[in-house]
Amino acid sequence: MNYHVFSLLVLQEEEVSNSILQNIIGVVVTVGIVSICVYYVLRYMESVYYKHKQKPYFIHFYPSLKKLPSYLEEFLEENDFYKSLDKKRRKYFEHRCARFLEEIRFVGREGLVVDGFMKMQITMMFIQLTFGMRHYLLAYLSTIILYPKSFYSILNQTENIGEFNPRSKALALSWKHFLKGKQNKDHGRNLGVHEITHAIHYNSIKKNDISSEIFYDTFLELEEYLGAIEIRKQIVEANLLREYAFTDKFEFIAVLIEVFMESPDKLKAKFPNIYEYVVRMLNFRYFEELH
C-alpha cells in the first residue's frame, strides 16, 4: 500500500514537472513568435518611413562605445572627416573603427608587413564611406589583402590594382595605389573608395537590412534617371567622371562615389540631382553640415 502511494506521488511530481516544462517551452515559443512579428512590423514601418523621409529611423545606437588602443587612436586626428565631426559623432566614428578592426582580418602579400598605420588608413576610409549607414559591417567582407603594388588576379586573369571577391569575402588592394588615391584628393581616382563601393553594392544586392535597402533602391532610381539619353550626354560632355565609369553600371557607381567623396561641390554644382541620389544611397549628409 505504501509503495502504491509512493508511486502515485512520483507520477504526480513527474506530471507537475512536465507541465512546468511545457509551460516554459510555450512561453519561449510565444515570445519568439511575437518577437519575430514585432521585428517584421517595425522593419516594414521603417521601410515606409524611408519612402517618406528618405532616411532610416536612426543611424547610431550602441549599448557601449569601444575605444581604440592609444597607438591607433592618434591616427584619428590626422583624418579630416573625423576632425569635422562633433564630439558625439567622433566617439561613434572611433567605436566603428574599433569594431571594424575586430571583425576584419588584414593580410599582407609579397612580403608586405601590414602595420597599424596601414590598417587605420583603410579602416577610416571605410568608416567614413559607411558613416551614414546603420549596418556598416558588411556580411560579404571579412578579409582585406594588401599587396605592395599591382598584382596578378587569379580570379580575373589580369594584372590588377584592386578587386572585390564576394566568394572569398575579400577585398584586395595595391597599397601603392591606395596611397596615391588618398593623397590626390581632387582627380576623381580613389582606389579605396572605389573597391569599398563595390563591396557595399554587392552587399546591398544580397542583404535586406535597411541600409542595403536604401542603397540598392536608390541605385535603381538613379539607374532609371540615367536612362535618359540627354542626361547621359551631359555626363559625358561634363568630363567629370573618368572614362572607366562607362564600363558598366557597377563601375559607374563606384567612380561616381569616388567623385562624390573627393569633389562633392563640383558634383553638386554640375549634377545636383545625381548628387542627391548619392547622398540618399549612402545616407551621407555630412558635406552639407560643413557649409
Automatic annotation (TrEMBL):
Keyword Secreted: no
Cellular component, GO annotation: cytosol
One protein family per Pfam: Peptidase_M90
Transmembrane segments: 20-42, 126-147
Swiss-Prot/TrEMBL keywords: Membrane, Transmembrane, Transmembrane helix
Signal peptide: none
CDD domains: Peptidase_M90-like
InterPro entries documented for this protein: MetalloPept_cat_dom_sf, MtfA_fam, MtfA_N
Molecular functions per Gene Ontology: aminopeptidase activity; metallopeptidase activity
Name of this chain's protein: Zinc-dependent peptidase
Species the sequence originates in: Aquimarina spongiae
